[in-house]
Each structure stands twice: as structure tokens, then as C-alpha cells.
Amino acid sequence: MNLSLSAAYFINYRNSQIFEVNFTLLNTSQLEILFFYNSLSLFLYFIFNYLFKFESIYIQYGVTFIFQQLVVLLSMWAIKFVNLSRVFTVTYLLIFYIVIIMLSRFSNVEKEKLFITFDNDLSKDYPDMVVVNSENFPKDLLEITSKSVKKYALRGFIYKQSKPLRFNFENIVEISNFLGIDIYEEHDGKFKLVHKSTSINKPLKNLEDIILLILFGIPIACLIFIVSIIILIFQGRPIFYKQIRVGENGKYFHIYKFRSMIDKKLTEEQIKQLNERSKIVFKSSNDPRITKLGKFLRKSSIDELPQIINIFKNEMSFIGPRPPITEEVEQYELRHLKRISIKPGITGLWQVTLRQDNDFEKWVKKDIEYIDNWSLVKDIKILFLTILEIIKLSGE
User: Fold this and answer.
1) Of 277, 359, 365, which is closest to residue 321 (Cα–Cα)?
2) pLDDT at residue number 240
3) Domains of the chain: which residue ranges?
4) At residue 199, what are phi and psi to the nearest 5 degrees?
5) Residues 333-375: tens digit of each pLDDT
6) Which of 91, 121, 222, 285 has the most CB atoms lying inside 10 A of its own CB?
7) Which residues are paired to 117 by β-bridges?
């Protein structure tokens, strides 16, 4: 906040004495005003921290900042603190927004290291190692890694060459690339690096998301606010729908969407009859749970807008494979895991080329094609094709 305030003040008033008359009339100094800003921010921060449990600290920062600005502007209006430029306020807001985005993307929290192995004997010898049941693959792997990454940093995969395993070394390489961790061989109590993970990590793609967030984040947030009011009027609460999805390297996260359905229980047999897709995924254009407003939200893809929150939290990207539900991933074969080796996206290659195709295997091929041949130009093309799909109301 102080960094943003100082930068905005420097940009707008570095050669101006425009505020001096206000400080004189109030019999206060710039330092005292800054102290008031900080005290108010801390007070609001702890109030929101007590009342709400935000999943992201950066969302809490943002909410605190917005309410702080409302209080400050109302206070200055009440005491007739003149000459507060609207350009300065907008500059302050934009700089704060950019700083928060950068922090959410590049700040790293130090965590204890954790290793993964399929060998139960190895896990008994090392306290920083967790065993994964290879017979219950990939469900056990996903559950353990998703729980572990909240408290630990996955360091690597450990195996013993002398031990017979369900998966051969080539399979383990695929798993390590999916998790974004290296492979180590254990020999006489020492770990030797035998494979460096080739998990996709593209700083340019990260920068692409930052730029798109800066350009479209605030307009999308305004649109979310307007749609939320419409849903509240015509459908009531809840406005948003939250569901656990599988993200990059198998990490579980909550995806956000506008609610487009009512809570109506269907039997497994009814769901099977409604399903128009392959057995691994479920899609139905005649689902009786979808509301009239929900149909429009889905057709126009407006129901996906709240996922800007997931992008802000660095759980998703604007463009990438769609994040699958856990039940879907539990049915995956080893070759399917590559589609969740990078951050999922709001839109992707198969959404603009195979949107009405029901073949799951074709989706996987398109996702892998996207991962293997990623480029900035390809993402820009997908972005424009997505806009065309939205205009055509081709969503389901």
C-alpha cells in the first residue's frame, strides 16, 4: 500500500505544492496522514481476517484496500480535503493492483521438503518421505500430493532400481514430469539425481497472464458485480458455485463459477442417460437442473467469468487445458496425465476447435498438442477464437 501510495504521489504531485493548503488547514503533516492510512489499513485487515476466511492472502489485501479507500475518500469529502485528484486515486488503485498481481505470481513461501516413493520400505527409513500406493494409481498419488503441497514442497521422486515396481523407469519419468519433480535413486542411504524434470515452466506464459490480468481484470470484476446482482434478483442465493478441480501437477483447488443449476438430486442411472459425452466426463444440454438464466450464462460462457479469481490466485491461466474434476482424473491412464502437467485455463485449444465434439480422446490429443507446441502467437489466436465462440453463443 505504501509503495503504491508513494509511487502515485510521485507521478502526480512530485513538482506540485497542491496539498500544502490542506495540511495547513488541518494542522497536520504528511507523515501523520500516512500514519492514519496505515492504522486504518491494519484495523480493516484484522477485522476482515476475523470475519472472513479468505483462501488467498492477496484477495484479503485487495478487499482491505478497497474498503480503506472508501473510508478515506468519505473522510476527505466530510472534512472538505480539496484538490484530491481523481487521476491520483485511479493511479494509486492501478499501481496497487499491479503490485498485488506481481506478488501473487512471484512470492514464494518457504516450505519443508518432501519426497515421494512407491517403495514402502524406503518410506520407513526416511521421515521426510511419503509412500504412494502404485496399485491405486492415480487416485492415491493425487490425494497424497494435493494434501502434501499445502504444507510441504515436493522435492523429488525416490526409487530403488533393485526393487521390482508396477511402473518401469520410463513411466516414472512421465509421473515426475507431471508432478514437476526430479527423480532420485537411493543407494546406501544416499540419493543420486537420475532425471531432471521437464515439467513445463514458461516465464513468458506467466507474464502473459499478468498482462491479461492488468488489462482485463478490473473490467471483468465490474461485469462479475453486475451479473451477480442479476442472478441474485432472478435466482436468489447462492450466486457462485464452487467445486474441487485438479490443477497443475495434480494440485486440488476450488474453481469458481456463476451458479447455473438448482439443487435437484438425480440417480446414477438418470445421469448416465443424460450424458452426451464419453464415459469419463459428463455433459448434457437437456439437464433438468439447469435454470433458464443458467442456460444463457452457459451459452454465452459468462458462467466462467468468476475464474478470474483462480487466475489471480495463480491456480489457473487464461489459456490452457480445462481443469477436470477429481472423479474424472481417477479414471485417467498414465498418458492422460500430461494434460494436467500445466496450469489449466478458462479457454483452450479444444474449446475453440472441438467444442461440440464428444470424444474425450480427441480432447486429450488437442491438450497435449497445445502443451507440446505452446507459443505466444498460438495463445493470442486462441483468445480471438474464444471471443468469436462467445459471440456465436456456442457454449453448453
Assistant:
1) 365
2) 92
3) 2-106, 113-195, 204-391
4) -60, 140
5) 888 888 888 899 999 888 888 776 667 888 888 888 888 888 8
6) 91
7) 131, 158
